[in-house]
Amino acid sequence: MIIPENERLVRDFVADVLNDKRYDAITEYCHEDVVMHRPGDVDEVGLDAYIEHYRHLHRAFPDFHATIEDALADGDRVGLRLALTGTHEGELLGRAPTGTSVSFSAQIIYRLSDGRIAEEWHESDRLGLLRQLSAL
C-alpha cells in the first residue's frame, strides 16, 4: 500500500512530536503561523503556542502515547483517529496529578500547505478523560 505524502508527514509528526517529544521537530513539520482549533478553547496560533501545547500535555502525561487507529488523506487534508494513553503525573485542566493511567480517543484533521501542517481541528474525549481522573 502506498501512503500519500501528506499522510506520511502527519504520521511522522505523531511519532516524532506526540510520542517522542521532539519539540524541535515542530518547526520542521509546521508553518510558523500554525493554528490549532479545539472546541471550547481559544485557538492556539503560532509555533510557540503549538510547542507549549505539547509540552503541557507531556508534563501532565510524561508517558503519553498516541496510536493511529485510522488515517484518511484527501487533497490537503489528513484525518486521524487516535487511541491515546498516559499516566496523569502533572497538572491538567486545573487538576492535581492523580497517578491514574488513562486511555481516551481523539480525532484530528490536519490541513497541509507547502508540505507543512498549517492548521488542525482537534476533538478529544475530554468527558471520558475527566471521568477516569475522577474529576466528575
Automatic annotation (TrEMBL):
GO terms for biological process: polyketide metabolic process. Gene3D superfamilies: 3.10.450.50. It comes from the Archaea. InterPro entries: Cyclase_SnoaL-like, NTF2-like_dom_sf. It holds the Pfam family SnoaL. This is Predicted ester cyclase. The lineage of its organism: Archaea, Methanobacteriati, Methanobacteriota, Stenosarchaea group, Halobacteria.
